[in-house]
Design brief:
five-stranded mixed beta sheet, binds 5'-O-[(R)-(carboxyoxy)(hydroxy)phosphoryl]adenosine, 3 domains, 398 residues, Nucleotidyltransferase, domain 5, 12 helices, alpha/beta
């Protein structure tokens, strides 16, 4: 009896026994003792499976989403796809370095993950035992940062005996358009739609045929749009992250004041490294003649840089619409917070009859709500991941 309860309490032992049972079955050498182990283990796993099935069929479905791919530690709770809480701890520690320092990012995630998850569950007004599954960002991103969220998610899900769901960070950005809130005013794009995914690490045009069917039609061959903005901001000495600073200054500047070179890349791919170099060389020349040039012209510089980047992005997007005939067009990722880009989307809706989908500001930069919504759809499809699923630093859509 004692042996039996110890055995029941140990999932590890169970796995060993069932492997042994299967091995015996394969070799046709079942002895009485092996058979005993096998049957017991099988019934143990079936009983666990039944309790998991009960969780899966439960209503409502509560998903905890965890995001830690770069420098934001975020946790969110969704009930039946409706967002109840979305808590994010950003990391100011990188500001003085002008960019994310991976080692500092993973240490900050370690400090933040427990309080952030705790707060998300508290704000959702539920108990952790009510959660149906834990969804986590598996990649792409910084490996050290990902490992914190991945391992926390694994331990948390295992301790609660609930399924784990792995989420592609990029898929999360696109699916941010499907997050519902209790007031329910959101309009999600119909499938298929195009999504311009622009962040610090990616610039892609994605054809979205279903939540789990995404095809990259074009992408940057070098730097991402956000990366170019951040680097140009840095050479102007404006600080990090450059996106919001450039956005703010650009509102007061003349977008046609300066011209920077635009890439000539065939098809739907992007390139931003040439623009970055053109910006740097022009700036060096101007500063040589006038050391206070940036201070005197930062609004015009920001507006011209933003205008050029938006122009590059929209040209290829127009081509994608022309090639696919799809006129439902969304934008996602950190750079989708940019006001110049958002205005360009509204302008294209008017000029070309597109129906455009622009996310709420809170869903543009990294957040766990977008991970939770993918987790919800995967939960409905019973798409779970094993406990030993590794994080991945580089990947795009399958
Ligand atoms: O999606 P995100 O939070 O992280 C990645 O997955 O990369 O995107 C961060 C990027 C940064 O490059 C940041 O400068 C940019 O988004 N960004 C903006 C704005 N807000 C954030 N770029 C332009 N205008 C903004 N308002």
């Amino acid at each position: 009896m004692i042996g039996l309860s110890c055995f029941k309490g140990s999932a590890v032992l169970a796995v060993i026994f069932i492997c042994k049972g299967l091995e015996c079955l394969a070799e046709n050498q079942i002895k009485n003792n092996d058979l005993f182990c096998f049957v017991l283990t099988y019934s143990y796993l079936c009983s666990r499976k039944t309790s998991k099935m009960e969780k899966m069929e439960q209503s409502p479905i509560y998903i905890l989403g965890i995001e830690s791919s770069c420098d934001d530690t975020s946790a969110a709770v969704l009930r039946d796809g409706i967002l109840l809480s979305n808590v994010t701890a950003s990391q100011a520690v990188h500001e003085s370095y002008g960019g994310v320092v991976p080692e500092l990012a993973s240490r900050a995630h370690q400090q933040n993950v427990v309080p952030v998850v705790h707060e998300a569950i508290k704000r959702a007004g539920i108990q952790k035992e009510q959660l149906s599954a834990v969804a986590f960002t598996r990649g792409p991103g910084l490996m050290g940062s990902l490992l914190v969220g991945v391992n926390f998610a694994k331990g948390f899900a295992r301790s609660l005996g609930i399924p784990l769901i792995d989420v592609n960070h990029l898929q999360g950005h696109v699916m941010a358009h499907f997050i519902k809130t209790p007031d329910g005013n959101e309009v999600a794009p119909p499938f298929p739609f195009l999504c311009l995914l622009v962040s610090g690490g990616n610039s892609q045009i994605v054809k979205v045929s279903a939540y789990n069917d995404m095809e990259v039609l074009g992408q940057t061959i070098d730097d991402a749009a956000g990366e170019a903005i951040d680097k140009c901001s840095k050479v102007m000495g404006l600080g990090y992250p450059g996106g919001p600073i450039i956005d703010r200054l650009a509102r007061q500047g003349n977008p046609k004041a300066y011209q920077f070179s635009e890439p000539h890349i065939p098809g739907l791919d992007y390139s931003f490294s040439g623009l970055k170099t053109s910006f740097l060389y022009s700036l060096q020349k101007w500063v040589k003649d006038d050391p206070d040039f940036v201070e005197h012209h930062k609004e015009d510089l920001a507006a011209s840089l933003e205008w050029t980047i938006v122009d590059i992005l929209m040209k290829k997007l127009r081509l994608a619409v022309k090639q696919t005939g799809i006129k439902h067009v969304a934008v996602a990722g950190g750079v989708s917070a940019n006001n110049g880009l958002r205005n360009a989307f509204h302008d294209h809706a008017k000029r070309f009859g597109w129906t455009v989908y622009i996310p709420k500001f809170s869903y543009t930069t990294d957040n766990a709500a977008m991970i939770g919504i993918v987790g919800y759809y995967k939960f409905l499809d019973k798409e779970f991941c094993p406990i030993d699923a590794p994080a991945f630093s580089k990947v795009t859509f399958k």
